[in-house]
Amino acid sequence: MKSIVFNGLTKAFGNRTVVQDLSFTAEPGRVTGFLGPNGAGKTTSLRVLLGLERATAGTATFGGSHYAAMPTPARNVGAVLEESRLHPGRTGRSHLRIHAVSGGIGRERVEEVLGQTGLADVAHRRVKSYSQGMAKRLAIATALLGDPEVLILDEPTNGLDPFGVRWLRDEMRKWANEGRVVLVSSHLLAEMELIVDDVVIIAAGRLLEKADVATLRGADGTSLEDVFIKLAGGGAGIR
User: Fold this and answer.
1) C-alpha angle with apex 79: 74 to 80, nearest 5 degrees?
2) Which end of the chain has a smaller Cβ tally under 10 Å, C or N?
3) Mean pLDDT for the stretch of residues 78-99
């Protein structure tokens, strides 16, 4: 099982540096929370990791392997980015079948992930009729198609109702218990405190802290939110 490794990652757009010298590792068997306010550089970092942006300096790899170099990336890495797009005219089932074919994945896996994500009863409906929560579940089902050993989720609870949030929390814990790498980015600190094992906190593109959550909270059990506010100086990194 390969870890996710950020090593001195820097990403700039023109004269604006969005991520600067970011280094951390997300290990197998653990849920790593990649936390920070909106505009902190989380999504940009993940886009570089997934080969959607080119690093200005440093690297973001899977145990030293770049995403683009993987022969069958869908079988190794499943990702849900916040800006994931779904074709409104396709049914949920046809969306998954198309992705299965492109990823070299057997058709039977489509029905498995539909059941796993609770979408079996609405798989025949067109995506344009889906609620936000259903669309998010479909994006997660797409990430799960290849039964990957690494799962990357960017703001995964957006659009989910309380039942969906609880379901996803339980799924992330199950994935980690199976030995997978689970990296989840969010600015919802209270929710992340319920699930993450390790925490990476960034603001304004810079690493503020990386530690296991118990160490970060300390003996007095300080909330993750309070730790973050103290580290971020009450608003650093908000753009």
Assistant:
1) 140
2) C
3) 89
Residue 159 CB burial class (10 angstroms; 0-12, 13-18, ≥19): middle
Going by their DSSP bridges, the two strands 198-203 and 77-80 should be labelled as: unpaired
**Predicted TM-score (pTM) of this structure:** 0.92
CA atoms within 13 A on the CB side of 139: 27
Instruction: Tell me the CA distances in angstroms from 233 to 89, 187, 229, one per residue in order.
Output: 46, 15, 6
Distance from C-alpha of 184 to C-alpha of 173, rounded to nearest angstrom = 12
Q: What are phi and psi of 112, to 5 degrees?
A: -65, -45
d(Cα 135, Cα 125) in Å, to the nearest integer? Answer: 11
Interatomic CA distance for residues 121 and 157, integer angstroms: 21
Within-domain flag for 81: yes
For 33-62, how does the pLDDT look when each residue is reduced to its tens digit (9 = 90+)? 999 888 899 999 999 999 999 999 999 999
Position 133 in a domain: yes
Residue 239 placed within a domain? no
The CATH number for 222's domain is 3.40.50.300
Tokens 């090593």 correspond to what residue?
7
- Coil/strand/helix, residue 111: helix
Distance CA 209, CA 83 (A): 26
Model confidence over 104-153: pLDDT tens digits?
Answer: 999 899 999 999 999 999 999 999 999 999 999 999 999 999 999 999 99
Q: What is the DSSP letter of 64?
A: T
Is residue 86 a part of any domain in this protein? yes
How many structural domains compose the chain?
A: 1
Residues in the chain: 239
